[in-house]
Amino acid sequence: MTNATIEDVAKACGLSRATVSRVINGEPNVKPLTIEKVKKAIAELGYHPNIHAQALSGGGAKTVGIMLPRIWRSYYSSLLSSIEEVAAQEGYYALIMAKDYLKNAERIFDEGRVDGFIFRNMDHVEEHERLFLRLRKRNVPFVLIGNPLRDYPAITIDNVGGGRAVAKHFAMHGFRKIVYLGGPSDNVDSNDRYFGFRIGFEESGMNPEGILRINGDYSTKSGYNAISEIMLTQKPDAIFAANDRMALGAILYLHKNGVCVPQDIAIAGFDDSYFAKYITPALTTVRQPFREMGTAAMKQLCSMLKGSSANPGKIILPAKFIVRASCSCPYSHDDSLDVLDAVENSE
């Protein structure tokens, strides 16, 4: 049957239109047998609920807003994939916005387009704080990925532990003159990685004051430019970049100018981006569990949308230190052809 209506579903089930509507809108106190009967009829008839009518009747838009930074990163593919998998299981769609969402988030909620939000952008902390305060006052459900601000629900990784692991590894190699290539100065992830790096360096009996910190913007170009400036006045033993793209920029500059990595300068990054093990030398880095972050964030938001009164708090996922050749360690990778799949699929 084509263009089936809610009345058709009700007739097929032998139920009232109101009862079918309650099942579609996910209202409580409906018998499991009734829910099963309605879902079976919907599947057999090919009925598609009118989302706008559902929202107007108080059933919600069944859509969540995924708010991402304007600059696309390859790892968002795995992050979004895991979010969408959970969303589909829970009967939600994902609306992705990567432009001017700080201005538009409240508007799209007021228009009934979304029921809640997942935020990934960690820059412009004060502007995000103001938006989150307004959403909290209005009881709009939202979950943060990566930035554990205040007591807001958040899925984050152990940035401090990741930075600490890199520092201990650098100290084991005897590196003393270190450059920390960070992200924007107000970026929480970058600051936490730097904090952990200093802790690990000090725990290893090294002087953390010997770490020179410079800031980029997480782009490959900013890593290239930052190291070009540093090399005018000094030559570090090692560079720890707050993400893999800036580490790549540093490697490109050093290669271009006849500086050997890792023989002359060792390098480590953060993220374990899809290209990390394929560049020369393969990049030592810290792996972020992007799929697990997306899954946990969507599950947490769904729990809030279902009316859970429990404070979900923060979930901190472990970050794994991955040792490859760019830090002077032995490394062998013989899957040379799978780079084609990695690039095409972006993880």
TrEMBL record:
| Designated name of the protein | Putative HTH-type transcriptional regulator DegA
Domain of life from the UniProt record: Bacteria
Which Pfam families does its entry note? LacI, Peripla_BP_3
Family annotation (InterPro entries) = Cro/C1-type_HTH, HTH_LacI, LacI/GalR-like_sensor, Lambda_DNA-bd_dom_sf, Peripla_BP_I
Q: Which UniProt keywords apply?
A: DNA-binding, Transcription, Transcription regulation
Provenance organism: uncultured spirochete
Cited SUPFAM superfamilies: lambda repressor-like DNA-binding domains, Periplasmic binding protein-like I
Where do the HTH lacI-type domain residues begin and end? 4-58
Q: Does the keyword Ribosomal protein apply?
A: no
Q: Name one GO molecular function term.
A: transcription cis-regulatory region binding
Q: Which residues form the HTH cro/C1-type domain?
A: 5-48
